[in-house]
Amino acid sequence: YKVTYVPNNILVENNEFSAEISYTIVDDKLVYSKKFNFPNGKISKANFSVWNAFLKQLKASYQEQIVLTKQ
Length: 71
Hints:
5 strands, 1 helix, two-stranded antiparallel sheet, alpha+beta, three-stranded antiparallel sheet
């Protein structure tokens, strides 16, 4: 089988948090990576809208399917 579709990568960075979701193909293997960083351990109320927008992207990404095609 060959990977023919993966969801888009997501990267969100600001001064209070960073979040990254990525899919890469290495040596015919699909590698999924998820990284969250909260340097201050919290998100201020001012950044809730950015965080909530990221969560919407994340949920949409989780709903997408990885497509494998038989060769």
